[in-house]
Amino acid sequence: MSPLEVGILGLIVLFILLAMGMPIGISMGLVGIVGFGVLTSFDAAMSKFSQTAFSMTTFYPRQDTSHKKLAYGLLGKYPIKDKAHAGRD
């Protein structure tokens, strides 16, 4: 099958799975793995799936600290300068 045929068939299967009530993430992942397997090989598709699953579950980004500034401001540890708190210093 050509890549165009695999893509069109994948979209049709994706819409069928969504119409059946399968969650969109699982539907897209399943269609993507099968499509990649048809175009290359299923060993390559399973290898790519395992690498992606591992990298996505082990990635832990640094969090933004703006929520900490707000929490400290509410607790009085981090001063918030605005009109509401101007006379309380």
Which terms summarize this structure?
mainly alpha; about 90 residues; about 0% strand; single chain
Query: Roughly how many Å apart are the termini?
Result: 73 Å
Q: Indicate the overall shape.
A: flat
Please state the average pLDDT score.
80
Low-confidence stretches: none
Helical percentage:
55-70%
Nearest-angstrom radius of gyration?
A: 24 Å
Structural class: mainly alpha
**Number of helical elements:** 4
What can be said about the biggest beta sheet?
Answer: none
What percent of residues are in strands? under 5%
Number of strands: 0
H/E element string?
HHHH
Question: In words, what does this structure look like?
Answer:
The protein is mainly α and 89 residues long. The chain has a domain of 56 residues. The chain is built from 4 helices and no strands. Helix 2 packs across helix 3.
